[in-house]
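Late entry, written up from scratch paper. The run itself happened at the end of the previous shift, but nothing got recorded in the book at the time, so transcribing now.
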Amino acid sequence: MRQNQIIHNMDYPIVATHKKMKQSLIILLIGLTIIFGCSNSSSQEDIKELGQKIQNGDIIFQTSKSSQSKAIQLATNSKYSHMGIIYENDGQFLVYEAVQPVKLSPLAEWINRGENGHYVIKRLANADQVLTSTTLIKMKQVGEKFNGKSYDIYFEWSDDKIYCSELVWKIYKQAVDIEIGQLEQLADFDLSNDIVKAKMKERYGESIPMDEKVISPATMFESDKLITIEKK
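Output as recorded:
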């Protein structure tokens, strides 16, 4: 009994040391997760600094983490799969976007929702002449009719439901008579990848409307009517 007791007592410091090392390692890993996990997140200070560079009507692009994002990227040969319009309201920057439903989202929240917090902000090359206070009011009025509408998973060219690039395109077209990016058809996209095929079959079955009019984030991103203001 006494010998066993001695052995048990001798082992205890070793066990305790291992326990402390394990706890220290866990604390270290949590700390690293917080540091690196937040490194790509936009804080209020980041947004305040960004606010010095952006203005009403700017267009922001990101790589969405939605289930359809990869298919959109492959079909359009672009990394960008989501977009919206930036508006400032009482000192707060917001993004008007078509998700489920169409709504205004705080800019920091919108950025952090994208892949790795990456974004690109673009602006009309002649924004100083076009985006007057009167024009911006009209843009918001046009956009208001889409507020609360459901996201259009079928990418139809109607106003009943609406998707992200369609929302931005129609606001600029109807309020300013400017077409940002070229309208295409589903047939113009690269539908050869298995991921794209699976998504198309999920949405349309065997009857894909190849002649459906579509505007993609990719063609709007590449428009020569826009200049890059900021990217991260």
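The domain at 44-231 is CATH 3.90.1720.10 (endopeptidase fold (from Nostoc punctiforme)).
(Scratch paper discarded after transcription.)
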